[in-house]
Amino acid sequence: AGSCFTQPPMHALNLLLLLLGAVVPLALTLPCLTDTREAFLRRLLAAQHEKHGLRKITPIPGPFATDHGKIPLLANMTSGKPHSASIWYPSNGTSTDRYPFLAFAHGAAEGSGLPDLEKEYPELLNLVASFGFVIVAPDSCVGMCYEYYHDQLATIVDCRSNRTLHPALAQADFSRVGVFGHSMGAMASLIAAGGLASVHPADYNIVAAVAMHPCGNPVAKPTAETISVPILFTAGSADVVCEDECAEHVYAKISKTKRAYFDVDGIGHMDPTNGGGLHELQVVAYWLTCYVRGEHCDKIYGSSGKELCHQSFKLAKCELANATLPLA
């Protein structure tokens, strides 16, 4: 630790440190993060100011122009206020077009006005929406919510049952749904993908998932063995919050479904966020487009069976498993 944490600059995450102090056990131990509580929280603070050292990637957008707005209230959020949500959607389609629905879960201190989702994840949400998706990202949880999957799943239910929440929901297709998230939201997404025996993705028509930089979850205690929909894990070899071994640990235990592990050399925890290098955004968009829309699967597999691993930047590790299983 030493001087790295001497008089850290004021940031919204400083508030999170105080909030977490009231809810995280004094001897917090995650499967992949064995530091003390203080060390873990300092990791989070340090990540907000990390220097990536790599050039910023410019992803290739999909065929749709996009727009975004706000949903003032989602009725069934359980992780605290605000109960609003951001919505991102194609803006240049026809009135008869239908776009699969995605639920995005933000990381700790990355939404809820700390800062707003629109400021922290604009490149990610805009890119994925441009491939033909309606994305709703709840703003709830101002701290660390280990059971945030409740709100991610409730977002699907609330938007499906009340299309008047936003005009774009009139064109949302809930017959094939995807979930994705970053950090805390990645933990939520892997549970929504079946990472708890009590969570059944089919109940929500979830057919694909992406977990970006997940950590362990000592409260919900997900089990990789029960994940049942195709899932992509992204990680960074320089991540000091959720080390890449965290994602790889879960990835290695999955056996029931297609899965991929995409570990970028030299990137940190905040790579998918505004100001990050954005190295993993393209593969996230292609994975969801492949398994939810049935398009661009060549960008994942190609003739080699691992096209996803062929990038212009260095990867620390990249694997795909169960590629011969049907798309389902």
Please describe what this structure looks like.
The chain has helices spanning 12-21, 37-47, 117-120, 122-129, 149-161, 184-195, 244-253, 281-293, and strands spanning 66-71, 85-90, 99-105, 134-138, 172-182, 206-212, 231-236, 259-264, 315-321. It has 328 residues and is α/β, with parallel strands linked by helices. A nine-stranded mixed beta sheet has the order 1-2-4-3-5-6-7-8-9, with helices on both faces. Helix 6 links the parallel strand 5 (172-182) and strand 6.
Shape: globular
The oligomeric status of these chains comes to single chain
Topology, number of strands: 9
Mean pLDDT: 83
Could you estimate the helical fraction of the residues in percent?
10-25%
**Low-confidence runs:** 1-31
Global Rg: 18 Å
**Number of H- or I-type helical stretches:** 8
Question: Main traits of this protein?
Answer:
9 strands; disordered N terminus; 328 residues; alpha/beta; nine-stranded mixed sheet; 19% strand; 8 helices; globular
